[in-house]
Amino acid sequence: MEEINIIQKLSHESFVRYYAFQKSANWFKKSGEQVQVAYIVQELVEGGELFSYIAEEGNLSPSICRYYFRKLLKSLHYLHSMGFAHRDLKP
Asked: Residue 55's Cα: distance from chain center in Å?
């Protein structure tokens, strides 16, 4: 819950926006059975993950590495300016 509340406060091009969150909602299976679920409605991000790109394409060129590293630094600067830290960075 804390992470969701934090993400909803952020407004930066590098952070996926959360539009809605429901901790407890009803979902009906095809069988008609009703189950309790939680859900997040978030911004669509097309293009896949950087990790997958690296896995498929191999090493990135120095210019591409600089591009993504700049984006990472700008994102972290914004996050820190908002009083938060990210403890799980990965491609």
From this structure: 19
Cα Rg of the chain, angstroms = 17
Q: How far apart are CA 43 and CA 62, in angstroms?
A: 30
Nearest by Cα to 13 from 60, 70, 86: 70
Q: Which residues are catalytic?
A: 88
pTM as predicted: 0.70
What single DSSP character describes residue 60? P
- pLDDT tens for 33-88 read 999 999 999 999 898 888 898 999 899 999 999 999 999 999 999 999 999 888 88
Alpha carbon distances (Å) from 3 to 9, 50, 63: 10, 22, 33
Does the pLDDT of residue 30 top 90, yes or no?
Answer: yes
Which residues face 78 on adjacent strands?
none
Quickly tell me which residue has 């403890």 as its tokens. 87
